């Protein structure tokens, strides 16, 4: 109970009363005052420097410093993320740090990290080069050895048959010259060895072949290990190659091609002893570099971990400082340049908190002059502010998505809390599906703290934000499902036995005469015997269609009544007399009368045709109703209601514009000095700061056209909106039929086979269809249709939604935006 008593008062019916305030803050206490106001989070500052660019404002240098520190913190955060480390939470006893000291520390940390990264990159590049050199030395040595053994095997044959010829030097091929005895450089044959990405080998070989016109010998061997790519730091497969050629010009061309393809060339000696010595030296250097790199990484990780302890606090501090200086840039200097002048909006209930915060700022900054808090008069419409909690916030967001309420306008969210999940459940009524949604909602609520601290995906974040909407939708779905008596489309005898029995054994057949009532009516919901009977669809269609009309007329009447309370609150007698009264008469003369007929038909069990009654009420109002008459005097009542509906249309259209014109003329001529209150003005018992209306020139033609559009829209909308509520019937029927199809044509059909595999497949298909079609697609469909009924059919009766949100300067809001 103590927790409930400490909760702030919440008035969702109308937005909080606001006041326009002016703050005159001495320069020495300005920073601290804005800081304390950010902690309170209940004042929205106006920008008094709209005409200045961001670079012409007073505290632009401080904003630049904060932006630079934010960049450094992002750099450090990226380094921690790239290193695979997790930033540790800052200890509770961490000492505070000044902004200037933090700026120096960040500069030192950034410089140290950049230097460590540069050294690490150089060492890593050297390590990669030595690793490639080692692989090239080994693979190229193997290629040269195999070439040498090949030469030894054919040397005798060449000496005997070819080398003795004096014309051999001019006609021998490159391969034959290579296989001649003696050093390769004596015959002009050389080779280039290196390493290249495996994906480029074919193109590389083709380019070498075309450039040298075939006068080369290309040998390749896959590298033993993957090598990191310097551009992307990804491990890639590479191939060692050795190209034999003849001539200096060819060598230059080959080197240029290697450079173009990103191949790294390494000089390999032909002598086997030298190659082995180089390989040993390279292996020794590699082991030294590995230990050096590991030591460097350990040192960098240690530095990043130490920074990570303070990272969250530093980022929060810089974010706050940036917001403080952005707010200070909205303030103006006074004439003496010793005080800053600011203006803004705040709720009336927050006046005491703000004044206490300003007094604290004056005391803590040792200022000789206190902050002046002054309430101003204003002609502007104040911002709209509703205090919400975790439960009501989602419903308020549903309303705000259509439009933010005008200041002190009736808030539809109060009624949306109940009507939105209920209309959803009318379309989604199945207590089996409702239990599935309920389990999901309870899971989200049970793990509220854990999920609220995590970064969720867009869909999951939306689902988590609407967890309490989902909770009520599921509860109402269970309730409506019990009324419809549907559990995954299967009826149950929950509240007793059926009131009906079959006349014969074929009562479910279309040729049967149907069911007979033999006992009292089923106590709650639809009798389970209707399921499967030939009268099922006609009965349920009639029930749900009439029920949809009743709900629609009731909700539209609620919207018109709320319009009355709006007009009464703003003391606008014209809207009551010439908008509320004719609208309530017109709607209820037609569709209110239809709703009464539906209820009377249900209560009396009459067989009257309501379609005939409503159609001939317009076509032949004086015709005798005959067997369609439900009560005595119905024909006379219909004529009276029809006349009232016809009178209501000009009643809405003509009087208000002419009365406004007359009142404006009298005020202009000086015979009337009062201010006329209309729905666009705030002539209520508010303090002066928010009650001053706009003085604009009266344009009769514009007012008349606006009223005519409004009247025509209401008259046509009364018909179309009532018909729009029939979507409740259509979607409820579609959901029920889909459930029946999946149950009978999938689950029962598969269960009819005496085969375990077929049964399991049928069960899997039924579960998939239930989860993805009925629980996801149908939920989304019913949600959107319920949303449309509230935005269009309900809210257009009273809700203008042309206000703007109260966005106070708050550190808590900064943290939420960052999350």
What report would you give on this structure?
With 819 residues, this protein is an alpha+beta fold. Helix content is 60%, strand content 8%. It contains 25 helices and 13 strands. The strands form 4 sheets. Strands 1, 2, 9, 10 and 11 form a 5-stranded antiparallel sheet that branches. A 4-stranded antiparallel sheet has the order 4-7-3-8, sandwiched between helices. A two-stranded antiparallel ribbon has the order 5-6. α2 runs antiparallel to α10, α3 packs antiparallel against α9 and α17 packs antiparallel against α22. It is extended, with a radius of gyration of 42 Å. 29% of the residues are buried.
Write a concise keyword list for the protein shown above.
819 residues, alpha+beta, 8% strand
């Amino acid at each position: 109970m103590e927790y409930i008593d400490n909760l702030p008062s919440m008035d969702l019916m109308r937005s909080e009363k606001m006041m326009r305030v002016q703050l005159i803050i001495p320069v020495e206490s300005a920073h601290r005052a804005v800081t304390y106001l950010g902690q309170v989070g209940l004042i929205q500052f106006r920008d008094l420097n709209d005409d200045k660019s961001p670079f012409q404002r007073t505290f632009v240098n401080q904003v630049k410093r904060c932006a630079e520190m934010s960049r450094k913190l992002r750099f450090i955060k990226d380094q921690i993320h790239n290193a695979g480390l997790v930033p540790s939470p800052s200890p509770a006893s961490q000492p505070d740090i000044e902004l200037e000291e933090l700026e120096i520390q960040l500069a030192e940390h950034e410089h140290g990290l950049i230097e460590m990264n540069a050294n690490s990159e150089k060492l890593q590049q050297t390590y990669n080069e030595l690793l490639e050199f080692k692989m090239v030395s080994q693979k190229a040595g193997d290629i040269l050895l195999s070439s040498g053994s090949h030469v030894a095997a054919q040397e005798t044959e060449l000496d005997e048959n070819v080398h003795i010829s004096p014309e051999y030097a001019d006609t021998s091929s490159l391969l034959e010259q290579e296989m001649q005895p003696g050093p390769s450089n004596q015959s002009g044959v050389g080779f280039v060895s290196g390493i290249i990405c495996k994906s480029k080998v074919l193109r590389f070989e083709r380019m070498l072949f075309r450039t040298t016109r075939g006068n080369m010998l290309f040998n390749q061997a896959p590298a033993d290990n993957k090598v990191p790519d310097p551009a992307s730091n990804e491990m890639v497969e590479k191939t060692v190659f050795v190209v034999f050629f003849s001539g200096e010009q060819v060598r230059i061309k080959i080197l240029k091609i290697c450079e173009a393809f990103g191949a790294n060339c390494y000089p390999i000696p032909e002598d086997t002893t030298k190659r082995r010595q180089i390989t040993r030296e390279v292996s020794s250097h590699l082991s030294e570099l590995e230990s050096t790199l590991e030591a460097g990484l350990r040192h960098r990780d240690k530095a990043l971990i130490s920074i990570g302890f303070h990272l969250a606090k530093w980022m929060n501090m810089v974010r706050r400082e940036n917001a403080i200086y952005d707010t200070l840039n909205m303030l103006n200097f006074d004439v003496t340049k010793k005080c800053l002048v600011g203006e803004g909006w705040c709720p009336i209930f927050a006046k005491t908190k703000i004044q206490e915060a300003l007094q604290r700022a004056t005391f803590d900054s040792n200022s000789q002059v206190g902050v002046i808090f002054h309430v101003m008069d204003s002609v502007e419409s104040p911002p709209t502010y509703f205090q919400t909690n975790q439960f009501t916030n989602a419903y308020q967001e549903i309303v705000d998505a259509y439009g933010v309420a005008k200041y002190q306008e009736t808030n539809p969210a109060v009624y949306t809390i109940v009507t939105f999940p209920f209309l959803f459940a009318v379309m989604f009524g199945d207590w089996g599906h409702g239990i599935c949604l309920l389990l999901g909602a309870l899971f989200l609520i049970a793990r509220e703290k854990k999920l609220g601290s995590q970064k969720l995906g867009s869909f999951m974040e939306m689902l988590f934000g609407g967890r309490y909407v989902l909770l009520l939708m599921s509860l109402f779905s269970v309730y409506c499902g019990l009324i419809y008596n549907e559990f995954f489309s299967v009826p149950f005898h929950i509240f007793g036995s059926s009131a009906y029995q079959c006349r014969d054994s074929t009562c479910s057949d279309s040729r049967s005469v149907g069911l007979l009532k033999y006992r009292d009516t089923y106590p709650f919901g639809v009798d389970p015997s209707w399921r499967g009977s030939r009268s099922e669809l006609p009965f349920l269609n009639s029930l749900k269609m009439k029920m949809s009309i009743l709900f629609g007329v009731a909700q539209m009447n609620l919207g018109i009544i709320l319009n009355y309370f709006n007009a009464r609150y703003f003391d606008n007698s014209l809207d009551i007399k010439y908008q509320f009264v004719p609208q309530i008469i017109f709607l209820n003369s037609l569709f209110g009368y239809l709703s009464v007929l539906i209820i009377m038909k249900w209560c009396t069990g009459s067989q009257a045709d309501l379609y005939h009654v409503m159609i001939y009420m317009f076509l032949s109002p004086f015709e005798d109703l005959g067997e369609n008459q439900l009560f005595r005097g119905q024909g006379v009542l219909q004529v009276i209601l029809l006349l009232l509906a016809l009178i209501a249309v000009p009643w809405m259209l003509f009087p208000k514009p002419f009365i406004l014109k007359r009142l404006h003329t009298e005020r202009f001529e000086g015979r009337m000095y009062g201010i006329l209150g209309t729905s666009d003005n705030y002539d209520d018992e508010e303090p002066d700061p928010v009650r001053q209306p706009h003085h604009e020139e009266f344009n009769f033609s514009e007012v008349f056209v606006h009223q005519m559009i409004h009247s025509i829209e209401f008259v046509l909308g009364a018909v179309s909106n009532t018909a729009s509520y029939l979507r409740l019937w259509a979607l409820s029927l579609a959901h029920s039929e889909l459930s029946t199809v999946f149950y009978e044509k999938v689950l029962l059909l598969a269960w009819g086979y005496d085969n375990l595999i077929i049964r399991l497949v049928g069960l899997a298909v039924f579960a998939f269809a239930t989860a993805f079609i009925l629980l996801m697609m149908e939920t989304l469909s019913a949600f959107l249709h319920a949303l449309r009924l509230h935005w269009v059919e309900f809210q257009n009766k009273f809700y203008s939604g042309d206000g703007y949100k109260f966005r106070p300067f708050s550190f808590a809001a900064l943290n939420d935006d960052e999350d």
